[in-house]
Specification:
This protein is about 0% helix and about 60% strand. The chain is built from no helices and six strands.
């Protein structure tokens, strides 16, 4: 099996919020975050739009994201 990652996976366990629309937010856990994106653990990927802003806690850094893949309780995103 070949690796298709653009950068090395850096494991993490940070809180985050998926922000979209006027006031919508979904809490998540950032499981890994290489330079180019992140893997987010969520209760359910249903209702998460293809593009959103990720608020990384506790640093309160915001990153614009595009969904790359979805699985049962995880969403992979690219930073844009």
């Amino acid at each position: 099996m070949s690796e298709n990652r653009r950068s090395a996976r850096l494991r993490s366990y940070k809180g985050g919020s998926i922000i979209f629309g006027v006031a919508a937010a979904i809490d998540c856990i950032i499981r890994n975050m290489p330079e180019t994106g992140a893997a987010l653990e969520v209760e359910s990927p249903v209702g998460i739009p293809n593009e959103f802003t990720l608020l990384i806690k506790p640093e309160f850094v915001k990153r614009n994201c595009r969904v790359d893949w979805r699985r049962s309780n995880r969403v992979g995103v690219q930073f844009i």
